[in-house]
Specification:
CATH class of the largest domain in chain A: Alpha Beta
Structural class of chain A: alpha+beta
CATH topology of the largest domain in chain A: GMP Synthetase, Chain A, domain 3
Strand order of the largest sheet of chain A: 3-4-5
Helix content of chain B: 40-55%
Structural class of chain B: alpha+beta
Distance between the termini of chain A: 59 Å
CATH superfamily of the largest domain in chain A: ANL, C-terminal domain
Radius of gyration of chain A: 28 Å
Number of helices of chain A: 5
CATH architecture of the largest domain in chain A: 2-Layer Sandwich
Helix content of chain A: 40-55%
Number of strands of chain A: 5
Strand content of chain B: 15-25%
Number of helices of chain B: 6
Number of domains of chain B: 2
Oligomer: heterodimer
CATH class of the largest domain in chain B: Alpha Beta
Chain lengths: ~190, ~210
């Protein structure tokens, strides 16, 4: 089953909404199995399964203004809003775009070229270059589509100067990779003492 | 590099979301009596939800068949939707490189070309590993690469080498320009395959 007919798709994409899809797929499958089970039981034994008697009796004695109907209606509306939100809220991109090195059209590529660096890769790269800065004890980083945040620990008591230096170095290195646009770099420096 | 069912998921979530929301709002309007006030032909708030006898409705054999078919349909759709969540590479099968089948056929497995691309990328300084995938056709090939570099690598240099050496070589082999190329960069703390930097330590004695 090829959903894209062997064509390439963009490497930089938003979340695929796999979790809500898996939940709904499982519910659909469960409902389908229950219906088949009930139909087969009816064919074999000649009567509908006992577990359907409860819902049947509940439905028979129900009026539209019953609290149960209000609850079902409200639940359906809420589920609908949640599903629409899951589909329509765009979510964060998985990667950041890089600019290709200027080669003056030497690349024999007729169509477009897409170069991306995953958010995790940007974070690792930033953290690694942060650790090369003198005065940094250890560093970790998190990256979003537009910003990189560094968490730095140092043995220094005065952290202000180191913070500025770390931001400048990491920004320069990220710009050097060709990230376009260069993400905003922020840092939290914590003194070990 | 792997492809996900993002567009399909969004479409079905919107469809099911609209159905659930519309159904919920309709039930709430009926329960509050607003629906009856707007149109007297619809159900009143005090009227029963099920007007007929459910025993009679579910009595005929045709209803059992309908339930069975509906169950199979729902179950199949659910199962297909779950299976669609598995990320797929969707590579090209085999490129047909011949012009006229009457004078002979030349078939090339796209994975062979992808392996050659990977091997060439792995020789570049700063590269820890790579994975290449060819899609499209022999006339319009799409190349997607995942390149893992060290955290000290000169990324622009690696990209320049790929664009000036690897891609032109593949283009020459296929005798056609690539329709589209994609490079996904990953960063690793491991050492590069070629051009490894060796860390040295020592004590300076005065």
């Amino acid at each position: 089953m090829s959903r894209h007919d062997g064509k390439a798709t963009p490497l930089r994409h938003r979340p695929s909404r796999a979790v809500p899809a898996l939940i709904l797929g499982t519910l659909l499958l469960a409902a389908g199995v229950a219906l088949v089970w009930a139909a087969v039981a009816r064919l074999v034994t000649g009567s509908w399964p006992v577990y359907l008697a409860g819902p049947r009796d509940w439905l028979t004695g129900l009026t539209w203004n019953d609290p149960g109907v209000w609850a079902v209606g409200a639940a359906a509306a809420v589920v609908g809003v949640v599903l629409l939100a899951a589909a329509l809220v765009p979510g964060r991109f998985n990667a950041l775009r890089l600019q290709a090195p200027g080669d003056g059209g030497q690349i024999p590529v007729a169509g477009a070229q897409e170069i991306v660096m995953t958010r995790r890769a940007v974070a690792r790269y930033a953290a690694a270059h942060c650790e090369y800065v003198d005065g940094v004890g250890s560093a970790s980083a998190t990256a979003s589509a537009r910003a990189v945040h560094l968490n730095v620990t140092t043995a220094l008591h005065e952290t202000g100067e180191l913070r500025g230096r770390v931001i400048a170095v990491v920004r320069e290195r990220l710009a050097g990779t060709g990230l376009n646009p260069v993400p905003k770099v922020t840092a939290s420096v914590r003194s070990k003492e | 590099m792997r492809q996900h069912a993002g567009a399909m998921n969004r479409t079905w979530l919107v469809i099911l979301g609209i159905l659930a929301l519309a159904g919920g709002v309709l039930i709430l309007l009926a329960a509050s009596g607003t629906l009856h006030a707007m149109s007297p032909a619809t159900v009143a708030a005090e009227s029963p939800v099920v007007t007929g006898d459910l025993h009679t409705v579910f009595g005929p054999a045709s209803v059992t068949a309908i339930v069975l078919v509906a169950g199979v349909l729902m179950g199949s759709l659910g199962l297909l939707w779950i299976l669609a969540q598995i990320p797929r590479r969707n590579p090209a099968d085999r490129y047909r490189l011949h012009q006229d089948p009457a004078s002979g056929t030349t078939l090339c497995d796209a994975s062979v070309l992808a392996s050659a691309v990977e091997n060439q990328i792995n020789t570049l300084p700063g590269v820890v590993g790579s994975s290449a995938l060819l899609r499209g056709t022999a006339m319009e090939p799409d190349l997607t690469m995942k390149v893992t570099v060290t955290n000290r690598a000169d990324i622009q240099h690696v990209l320049h080498s790929i664009n000036t050496r690897v891609i032109p070589d593949l283009s020459t082999a296929l005798e056609t320009p690539l329709r589209r190329t994609g490079i996904q960069l990953e960063v690793s703390g491991r050492n590069a395959i070629a051009g490894t930097t060796v860390d040295t330590t020592g004590t300076v004695i005065y």
